[in-house]
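Dynein axonemal assembly factor 4
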Amino acid sequence: MPLHVTDYTWTQTDSTVHISVPLKGATAAGVDIVSTEEYLKVHFPPFLFEAFLFEPVDDDRSSAKVGNGVAVFTLPKKTHKVWEHLMITTGDKETKREIRERALLTQEQKLSAELKQKAEKRQAEKKYALETMMKLEREERDRIQQMKDAEREKTTVELAAWQLRQKQEAQQNQNHQIQQNPGTKLPGNRQTDIRKNNQVHSDAEKKKKIRAQLPPPRTCGNIPVTFTPRVFPTALRESRVPEEEEWLKKQAEARRAMSAELEELEDLTEEERNPDWLKQKGDKCFSNGDYVGAVNAYSLGIRLNRKLPALYSNRAACHLKLRNLHKAVEDSSKALDLLTPAVSANAAARVRASVRRGSAFCQLELYAEGLQDYEAALKIEPHNEELQRDAQIIRDIIQGSAGTQNGTK
């Protein structure tokens, strides 16, 4: 149970409200703040300050400064007038609960919008950087191609000049030979053909020698591989090895399903990128009574990894505390979907998820559906006296409702 802060101070003008909350030794990093037009919460375990404001304020222009052991809030009023009180004086718990839930929903929407805006900004920056790199690479390719074209053109010109010189020299040699031996004919290309034949024969001999020096091809074979079989502590006639293997495979896939969300949440610390750490943080907030903080931790963990049933089941427990009954049913159902196949390794988790959904159904006065979930939990733990007692209470309520209806008829 949190300790409510009562030694706060506040002042006001016609246009602004100033609130000062002592932090009692807490650091700035350990302070959780939720602020909307009609609600202000400052939570630093185990202390809690809540203010259901007397009039709406301008949340977009509101500011908070945390330091030197105090949190100072500046809240511009929407209507310029002097308030009679800082907070509403009604003692209606239902009204306060509705205001608290609206504030939580507004805070979640605000955080979601900020994350989306940051993701869009990072995407635009990545796109600009990619386009710039592509432009530089294209310019570099064009420059290299121009150098290649210039070198190719230069080589072509030099080759043509060399061929022309060779032709001229051959013509001069032929004219010189004719002048020295005017009565003889040239042998044509016979000598050239002999040289070519000798060269071909020499190349064939070299290839034959190289092939003779090469080692023989390796012999093929098979390498036997054996694996140690996984043994489950279950009798052979009751063995559920396929279900156990499927459950282990799903757990391994859940640990690997974190790639896309991490790219969108680059601003998080290394710890905040770990769903297991977020689950522990949510559990700690839950034990301290900070159910909203626990919901935030579990929700971020679900964004990072949507395959871990414990995050949905624990968030369902928080929604039960906050009276978000439909959300509790939804999260419990998602946890039960992920807790398949039903094996001994996830039996306890299935019991918790079934009881939480059954409790939410009963609080929604859907007793038949709630009884089904309690009976499903009893099939797993048939000797659980507490479950037996709760299931019997639900049966009595259903039977009493049926008896009342029959009597009315």
